[in-house]
Structure formats: structure tokens, C-alpha cells
Design goal:
41% of the residues lie in helices and 13% in strands. By secondary structure, it is of the alpha/beta class.
């Protein structure tokens, strides 16, 4: 059998994840199962996808020519995305970059997917509507019903949108291209979404990644969207799949190659994909993973409200039930300069926070200490991570940090045992790892 195209192996994988009946049929008669879906793949050579006994056989994968093009295709797509993420880290202002890194390090130890998401938190999102028509039962952002949309050619929205993108590019750099145009909204709720997408592509160099659960509403529009995206390039898009019938509809209506650059977010009940506990996710699935679908450490902007928030993902769902904390918020009803002023204010009052002699370090509340500093065995752990400390200066320092004494006082108290430079270095390392990063309290909270 000749080598199957990568997009056919992709479709095979989607069926494995999303359709429990397909999984059962593979175990009974794999050849018949793939033939029913018109796939040209050899299921025996793809056992690493569906057979748990073969999923750790790295040698099998490296030698089989059937899967080589598939993995090279996946690596090429990933490399394209990483190119823009690298620009994001290289070009953002130092203060914004270090703040984002601390938030990423914090979240990495607080969530089931924390380490996977480290380095993939994006700088901004722009909502083009208020609310959402889809109402997914698992929505971790608990999106409200649709109230209004920002039409492209009304009330100066085109000009305002263009100015917002310029503000983001000026502050973030080329990495602003990793921003996107939805949040607790669905892009296809806005009839003019494709127009906004075109402006984004023109100003920032690639189109934004699009995630929609409304792809079935107008198949002709969806197909035109896929064709438009194919001409633009960029990374890949995502279609949320909420039922098995939707998955089967996609497989029937669109060829594997048409969906080559579309990741199917398989949220249907039969899927092996787990839900997120935030928002409505925990209500639907009590076994949902601890984490957040919020993928922005930066600015959340709504074009209708002309509002802006500085946010970052979190798992403190008692205080922040939607899975992201709000550090600062404002509106820019009169001019784009108000948005620029908000960005500058964040840079001066939040991003500029640094470890200096007056800083009073305090370990996060979700961190537990293990071991005994007297015995030289100290570790810090959370539900998802554990960090052991072995150097004498780190061990002694962790025994002294109490949230009351400042950096200067800690250095002074330990300088008789350790060189001040090594104490500062250890403190800076703990600070950069996000171990002192405390979430802001919600507005009106007394915590």
C-alpha cells in the first residue's frame, strides 16, 4: 500500500478520539472500520494511534515509512506556530515579557495542562460581539447569550479595530500576530468576521487563529472561510464538535484535505478528550481536569463595549470561576489614546513590579513545604508539580521567607552564612519561577 496522505491519518486519529463505536470496530475488524469511512490508511501500521500496546513503541514509529510523512507534516505545522511564538517572546517589552513569564510559570504548577501551556499564552484577544449564540454546555467561560455584534462598517468599528491592532503591534511587536478575535464569543456570530480577519492579516502578517462551534450553521460560509484561509496561510483553525452527529456530518460534508488545517476540538460525550473544570465545564463533567481554557496573559478587549482588561489564566475557581484573573480593567469610550494609556498604566504599575530590597516575598498559598531545612531536604510542591532544593543557600532561604521580612532584611540575616550575591540570585530565581506570584482579589472582595 502506498503511503497515506497526512490529512487522512489526521482524520483517522479524529475518529479514534471522537467515536467510541469506531474504536470498538477497530478492535473487531480494523480494515472494515476504515473502509466504512473511505480512508486509504493501513490501520495496522497506525496502531500507535489506537492500540495502547503500541503507543510507546518509538522504534516502530521511526522505521515505518507510512507514518514518516505524517509526522514531518505535523512538525512543519508546529514549526510555523513556534516561529510566531518565538517572535512574541523576542519582541515584547522586557517588563511585559517577564511578567508574562512569571504568570506562565505560576500556572504551570497549578493546572493539569500547565507545563504544556507554558510559553503558549498569547498577548491579546479581541471580542467582536457580546455573548454567544451556541451556548455550549461545557463552556469554561460561561458565555452569556448573544446580545449584539460589532458590524464592520457601522459606528466606526472598522477604523477602531484597525487602531486597536496598531496599538497592539506597537506594544507587542510582530508577535502580536498570535492574538485572536474571540473569547466568550463565537467568531461566526458576527456576519463580518471575515472582513475583520482580512484587516488582521493585512496589519499583522498572518490571519488570526479561528475557533468556532458555529461552523455547521451555514456550510457555504464555512467552505468559503476555509478557502479564504487557505489563500492566507498562517497557522491552523479549530472547529468545536459538540455531538457525534456533528462529527459524522463533518466527515461526510468535508473531505480530509479540506480540513487539513482545521483541528477538531472533540467535545462530544463519546470523545476521549477531557473537559475543563472552569465555568460550566465542572457542572457538565465532575471529572473535568483542573485547569483553564483561558490562553491569554495580556489584554482582553471588547470592540462593542470598548472595554479592556489585563488578564491571566488561573485555577483559583472560588475567586475567579471563569479560570482567569483580572489584574486591571478600564474602558476607552472616547478615543484610542485611552487604550494606549491603559497599556502604559499596566506597564508602569504592574509589569514594572520587580524584586528589590523592599519587596516582601511570600510563597503562594497553594504551595506546600516538604522536608526539614535542618536536615537539608527541602521541597516545594503543588497538586501538579514538585521542586526539590539542594543548595545550602536555597534551603536556608526557604526557612527564612515568611512574607513579613523584605529582601533586604533576608539578605542581611543570612549574609553571615552566605555571600549576599548568592542570596540575591536564589531569591531572583524563586521570583522568576512564579513562586511569589499572588493573584489579585476580585473587585469588591475583602481577601
Amino acid at each position: 500500500m502506498s503511503c497515506a496522505p497526512p490529512w487522512e491519518i489526521k482524520r483517522f486519529s479524529e475518529l479514534v478520539i471522537g467515536d467510541e463505536l469506531f474504536r470498538a470496530r477497530l478492535a473487531e475488524d480494523a480494515g472494515k472500520a476504515v473502509k466504512q469511512w473511505g480512508l486509504s490508511v493501513d490501520p495496522d501500521r497506525l496502531r500507535f494511534i489506537w492500540d495502547s500496546d503500541c503507543q510507546d513503541d518509538g522504534e516502530f514509529l521511526s522505521k515505518d515509512p507510512e507514518v514518516g510523512p505524517y509526522f514531518r507534516w505535523k512538525e512543519s505545522r508546529e514549526a510555523n506556530a513556534l516561529h510566531w511564538l518565538k517572535l512574541l517572546e523576542q519582541e515584547t517589552p522586557d517588563s511585559f515579557r517577564t511578567w508574562r513569564k512569571r504568570q506562565a510559570n505560576r500556572y504551570a504548577t497549578q493546572a493539569a495542562d500547565g507545563f504544556v501551556r507554558n510559553g503558549r499564552l498569547l498577548p491579546f484577544a479581541i471580542e467582536l460581539s457580546k455573548g454567544c449564540t451556541v451556548g455550549c454546555s461545557y463552556c469554561a467561560l460561561s458565555a452569556e447569550p448573544l446580545q449584539s455584534v460589532a458590524r464592520f462598517d457601522l459606528e466606526g468599528n472598522e477604523k477602531l479595530f484597525t487602531k486597536i491592532l496598531h496599538v497592539m503591534r506597537e506594544f507587542v511587536g510582530q508577535g502580536a500576530a498570535t492574538g485572536f478575535l474571540y473569547w466568550a464569543t463565537d467568531p461566526f456570530d458576527n456576519p463580518d468576521y471575515e472582513k475583520y480577519l482580512t484587516v488582521f492579516n493585512r496589519i499583522l502578517g498572518i490571519p488570526p487563529q479561528t475557533t468556532t462551534a458555529a461552523w455547521k450553521r451555514n456550510v457555504r460560509r464555512t467552505r468559503r472561510f476555509l478557502q479564504q484561509r487557505g489563500r492566507m496561510g498562517g497557522t491552523w483553525d479549530r472547529f468545536s464538535v459538540n455531538s457525534l452527529s456533528e462529527l459524522h456530518f463533518l466527515m461526510t460534508e468535508f473531505s480530509p484535505q479540506e480540513l487539513e488545517n482545521v483541528e477538531l476540538v472533540l467535545q462530544n460525550p463519546e470523545s476521549l478528550r477531557s473537559k475543563c473544570f472552569a465555568g460550566r465545564g465542572g457542572e457538565m463533567d465532575p471529572d473535568a481536569k483542573v485547569g483553564s481554557i483561558a490562553c491569554v496573559s495580556g489584554f482582553l478587549i471588547n470592540l462593542l463595549d470598548r472595554s479592556v482588561k489585563l488578564i491571566s489564566p488561573c485555577t483559583d475557581l472560588k475567586r475567579w470561576p471563569l479560570g482567569y484573573a483580572v489584574y486591571k480593567e478600564a474602558a476607552f469610550p472616547q478615543s484610542i489614546s485611552q487604550l494606549s494609556d491603559f497599556v502604559s498604566s499596566c506597564e508602569n504599575s504592574i509589569f514594572s513590579d520587580e524584586l528589590n530590597d523592599n519587596y516582601r516575598p511570600r510563597l503562594r498559598d497553594d504551595i506546600e513545604r516538604e522536608g526539614d531545612s535542618q536536615e537539608g531536604t527541602v521541597a516545594l510542591k503543588t497538586a501538579f508539580a514538585r521542586r526539590a532544593f539542594v543548595t545550602p543557600v536555597e534551603i536556608d532561604l526557604l526557612g527564612e521567607i515568611d512574607g513579613q521580612r523584605s529582601v533586604g532584611e533576608l539578605v542581611e540575616s543570612l549574609s553571615g552564612v552566605h555571600h549576599p550575591a548568592s542570596i540575591y540570585h536564589a531569591l531572583k530565581q524563586l521570583y522568576q519561577e512564579g513562586l511569589f506570584e499572588h493573584l489579585p482579589a476580585p473587585e469588591g472582595s475583602f481577601q
